[in-house]
Structures are given as structure tokens and as C-alpha cells.
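Memo to structure team: turn this sequence into C-alpha cells by end of day. - J.P.
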Amino acid sequence: MRLSPYPVMKDSGVPWIGAVAEHWSVLPNRALFFEVKERECPDEQMLSVTITKGVIPQKALLEGSSKKDSSNLDRSAYKLVCPGDIAYNKMRAWQGAIGVSELRGIVSPAYVVERPRDKVCARYFHHLFRTPQFAKEAERWSYGITSDMWSLRPEDFRMIYSVLPPWEEQAAVVRFLDHADKRIRRFIAAKRRMIELLNEQKQAIIQKAVTRGLDPNVRLKPSGVDWLGDVPEHWEVAQLRRRWEVVDCKHVTVPFVDEGFPLASVREVQSFDLDLSTSNRTTPEWYSHLVSGGRTPKRGDLIYCRNVSVGACAYVNREDQFSMGQDVCLIRSDNQNGRFLNYFIHSPAMQRQLSLLLIGSTFNRINVSEIKSLVIVVPPRAEQDANVAYLDSSISTYDKPIISAQKAITFIREYRTRLIADVVTGKLDVRGAELSPLEEAEELPAAGDEALDEAPEEETGLEPVEEGADAAE
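Reply from structure team:
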């Protein structure tokens, strides 16, 4: 779909908006919304305002999460939100925690509820207020001692200038963006499905290689472990501690610096090979402390995550100096192949073992003694090396299309962000845009379905009530 700029533009006079269509209005939010503080509705469902999805039911945020459920709190002071209201998290508005509600419910007193005036389409402003440009403007109007305490007060929200197209164009913008979003989400869903299928094929190859080996005629024996099944007769089945040393990280919080020694923490071990490209760094003095006691990682070691992303593990394929950060441990051996163990750690067999170990756990974490007790297979070293050569070659053919699909998803998300910003701030004219009909098979679930297109939620929207939140109201 090709869009053109409006034929006549004007300077809005507002830096974050820039040029807009000549016939669009530029008004302060106080002319577009009024704050509502309806309370005494404790029986309504609780809502949360999140960064990635806007306003959603709090129960949807708690499913599969260890986050605290605040539903038992005294809710008499909670604010009523009606469909069509704009709600935002005062402490997170500058990060994008704002949106229109399609539901009736209540939110924390520390949140702000704004109701649109006549001729104001809340759905249009949902798109406008969730642009990076508005988030930057909200940050400029927020105040606080530190960034994690910045708050966009209602009186400051009302001072921010926004753009207002005629009612018909607000509706046209919403109609166009909803249509574009469906097509983009369909594209993302297809790419994600392709990635899922490729990963399934990778897992099948890994599982066969690390539990049966490469010889299809090898004689098998019972492993004695239900989740593992039969293994080659000459392979050893043992606890990790029998063949590998496990060294925990230092349990200290260190200062970060722009130039220094990299830290390998949870984020750095999400790929098969260790990735320090975006790692935090610390000073030489703290580096020396972190690697003391035999904790200096070297090529061939594994960095294993024991908290949050339990089971994530990365192979150290580098010679430069770095140290372990928080929530990881080091696995090493002088006579075993670390890449083979890492393939086993990434296999469905290990995933089943971990799921059994974590049954009933409140938190997704394991300690060092449990890691040492993990059951592994130990082929002769020559077979480990042969398996690694085979898997490195086989897996690479799957990794390339997976990486390509991931890049395509990143690109289309960036395109969507830019498209929304250009349309809602009057840079592109959608009045004559032809919206091709979507086939019934192309229809997708509601946009809040995170399984299709959302990254994991970075914050919950379940913050405690701000101290003195109502004092200024």
C-alpha cells in the first residue's frame, strides 16, 4: 500500500510532532481529555497498563508468572476505567505504559485515567500516545530524582500538546492502522511458525545425536532413566559431577562502566555460543575479584544459567578476558568436549529432566548442587568430537533461515512503529488508501495475543500504590 504526504503541510509549532496536515488542529491535552477519578467499585476486574500491550486484565499478566497478585488489597480507592478511557502508569508513561481500555475495570490509585471529550477518538490517541515520539515527550514532562522514579503527573499530561485531525480522519487512521496491523501480525505469525518448525527439526537432530549417536546399528541398553530411554551400550550415564567441575559465580553486585571487562550474565547465555556484544562491563579491580578462586572462564568452558532462564547455556569460544556476572555458574572439564555437553543441555532430554526437577517450584531457579546432580550421557571422547562436528554442520543449515526470519520480524516491527508514527502525526495521508479484504483464513486473534507477536513483558504494571499518590489530586 503506497501512501503520499498531505498536499499542504504546516509547522505544528510542537517539536515532537513536527509538520502536520494544514487542516489538522494542534491542542493541549486538557482540551482533548478530562481526568476521571471514579472510585468505590471494588468488585470490578483489575486492569494493568503495560508497556508492550497497553491496558489488559491483570489476571492475564499473572498467568505463568511469579509476580505478586494484588487482588487481595483494599480496592476501595482504585479508579474505575470504562471502555474508551485512556489510562496510563504515571511511573512508566515515558516508557510507553499508556493506552485505551476496551474493558471496564479498576486500576491502582497511582495510575491516571483520562476520558476523551467530544469529537475525540480514543483509539486514535491510543496509537498516538504509544509512539516513541510521545514517549520522549512524556519523559520530558515527567519529574523525579532518578529515572526509575520519574512520574508524569495529570497536570503535566494536560500541558502536552497533541494533534487532532477531523473526526472522519481520526476514524480513517484507526481503520487503516488496524488493517495494516492485521497484515503485519499475519506476516510475523507466519515467520514465527517457520522458526518454530525449523527449531523442532533442529531439536530432533540434536536429540538423536546426543542420545543415540551417529551409528544407526549401535547396540543399545536401558539408561535406567525414564526421560532418557535407551542409549548406546558403551556410553556412560552419570551425574554431571562425575565428569565436570561446576563453579558458582561470586554473589556480589558490581559497578558497571563504559570501558572495562565484560560480564557474562543471563542475557549473554541465551545463544549456543557466548555473546558478549551487549554485555555490561566492570572495572579491573572488580574483574579480579570476580575471577578469583578459579573462576576465570576459558575457551571450552560453559556458562550455565541457574536463575530466571534456567538451563540456558553458552559455550565459551573466545580467548578474551571476561568474568561471570550474576545468576550463572561455570562448567568445565579438562578431558570432555564442552560443545557436546552443551548440545546435550539443549536437547529435549535435558528439557524433560529440568521440567521434572522444577515441578512445584515457586521460582524458576536451581542451585549448584542440583546442577551437579543433573544426569548426562558420556560417550567416549572421540565420539563426542564426531557428534559435535556433525551437529555443527547440520545445525548451521537451520540457523541461517532462522536468523533471516528473525531479522525479517525485527524489520517489520520497526516498519510498523514508523508507519504508525507517520500516520498519526499527519505525515502520510490515509484518506484514499484502499484496504484489500483479508481472507477469512488470514484473520488473527486479538492484537493482545502475545503468542503471535509480542516480546515477553518487561514490566508487570503491578507496581505498589505510590506513596501519597492521592495527595496531589
